[in-house]
Amino acid sequence: MPATQEINIQKLGLIAGGGNLPAYLLSICKDKGIEPFIVGFDGQTDSELMDGHCHQWAEFGAVGKIISFFKSNDVTDLVMIGGVKRPPLTQIKPDLKAVKILSRLGLRALGDNDLLSVLKEELEGEGFTLHGIQDFCDRLLVQEGALGRFQPEADDWIDIELGLKVSQEIGSLDIGQSVIVQNGMIVGVEAVEGTDALIDRCSALQQNGRGGILIKTRKPQQDKALDMPTIGVQTIVNAHKAGLAGIVLHANNVIVADIKTVAKYADKYKLFVIGAPIDKKSKSVTERTPKA
Amino acid sequence: MPATQEINIQKLGLIAGGGNLPAYLLSICKDKGIEPFIVGFDGQTDSELMDGHCHQWAEFGAVGKIISFFKSNDVTDLVMIGGVKRPPLTQIKPDLKAVKILSRLGLRALGDNDLLSVLKEELEGEGFTLHGIQDFCDRLLVQEGALGRFQPEADDWIDIELGLKVSQEIGSLDIGQSVIVQNGMIVGVEAVEGTDALIDRCSALQQNGRGGILIKTRKPQQDKALDMPTIGVQTIVNAHKAGLAGIVLHANNVIVADIKTVAKYADKYKLFVIGAPIDKKSKSVTERTPKA
User: Fold this and answer.
1) Quick check: B88 and A209 CB within 8 A?
2) Is A11-136 assigned to CATH 3.40.50.20?
């Protein structure tokens, strides 16, 4: 992978959802002397995030309000960071700007991925530049190879190749990013329940013997400036509890939050956690000799 | 749909798994004066099924034993009926015949659908004729249209078309047959957990407002003489408990066990249960005016 071209800006707008990544990006901003301006969503964004920073609480449909906030603070660079759960459509109160978008889009805005792409397009149309968090930190995307000491066994590669293929197909249908595979069988497919719930339920669905493998990839159509697939320490803890054999991540396309701790926990639990590339042509991994 | 050409035989071999369908087929055999010969699997087939009938208990890998049983009883027509859970590969004890099959196939036999197709091919190669249960009973496959009094609302058709499309894609990947859709979102995708567990977990994953829709279709490559998708009264009860709005079944390709009771329960719970066709070309349903 080429080294990330880190960007050089004074102000950064954060459209912040849940999880640890918004706080992590704030710590990067602090290190680099970037002033953050934060938009948070009621009930989804951690309110501690806002402390001491210029911020704005918004409802999900308040597109105009969000744009005004950034414009009035001369913020032109934005990051959408952390998962946001879309409320039921009936509970979204679109402001004038949002109504304009929705009337232009109609039902195309129903899918999750489309909704974010649309917001990105709209923000870019207003003159903003959207970035991915990986633009601010070289070491955030998983590289090809093992994170810790453990590697897949030779036989695991049959399941890994199947999982990479199927997770990409699932992704291209905008269903989810993750699957769990064991003995050539798709044990579970992630949809709206999220990766943690997928891992949890697959605990009981696995066959005896070597545990299943979690495979997580970026959807083929997923914008790198939008919500990148992410794992963290909790994913490793959950995988261990569920008796999985390992985790395979789409190399250069999945964010690993707190990579050192993740590697430490992977070793502690004797799980393999690896980055693996996807062969674009075959939508499968490239042929390779499994490492011992 | 053309009326089923019911077959006329004296003896029928049942390779029987779990669920209610094997007993149902036995009752059809009784009505029609067909003598049944049953192979059951330890821990999977209801032992009461065997009472008073010529039968044979078998382990999963005992292909040679199964073939001998039918041949020694001059049985040439077979039905594989009722779900069979494949044991872990390490626990299958293949006999000589099974070893021969596995060595010919290698890892292709790992997928569920392939495993059954392979068994069918092998049995046909030995001179047996495989039938689907629908060959013995006209009224077993769901027709196009509503089973009970309720119909989808006009807006439901967006979710139904999406669900039919996605369930076919999931099916073509040999993952599962069912999805639950709500407000344009795939709430859940069935893999090895089965339809009941899918319905159960989607209960909590739905958004407020009108409930989700369960869509179940036959996999494009699924052999009609093998395990056809099936629903029964319990599916309706579960759907009601989970707050679903309705159920859509692939017309002429899903078995509804005990259709009268299913329709009665659908009405009782105010659920729509319909058969809908799939447009082969677009892999989606054909355009139509929703019924009021």
Assistant:
1) yes
2) yes
CB-nearest to B173 from A110, A169, A193 is A169
Assigned architecture for domain A145-276: 3-Layer(aba) Sandwich (3.40)
Q: Which of residues 36-65 of A touch B (CB under 8 A)?
A: none
Q: Searching chain A, which residue's CA lies closest to the CA of residue B174?
A: A186
State the DSSP string of chain B.
-PPP-----SEEEEEE-SSSHHHHHHHHHHHHTPEEEEEEETTTS-GGGGTTSEEEEE-TT-HHHHHHHHHHTT--EEEEES--PPPPGGG----HHHHHHHHHHGGGGGSHHHHHHHHHHHHHHTT-EEE-GGGG-GGGBPPSEESSS----TTHHHHHHHHHHHHHHHHHTTS-SEEEEETTEEEEE-STT-HHHHHHHHHHHPPSSS--EEEE---TT--TTS---EE-HHHHHHHHHTT--EEEEETTTSEETTHHHHHHHHHHTT-EEEEE--BTTTTBPPP-PPP-
pLDDT single digits (tens) A38-88: 999 888 888 899 999 999 998 877 888 899 999 999 999 999 888 777 666
- State the complex-level ipTM: 0.71
Domain range B141-276, CATH architecture = 3-Layer(aba) Sandwich (3.40)
For B231-285, write each residue's pLDDT tens digit. Answer: 999 999 999 999 999 999 999 999 998 899 999 999 999 999 999 999 754 444 4
Closest CA of chain B from A60, distance in Å: 15
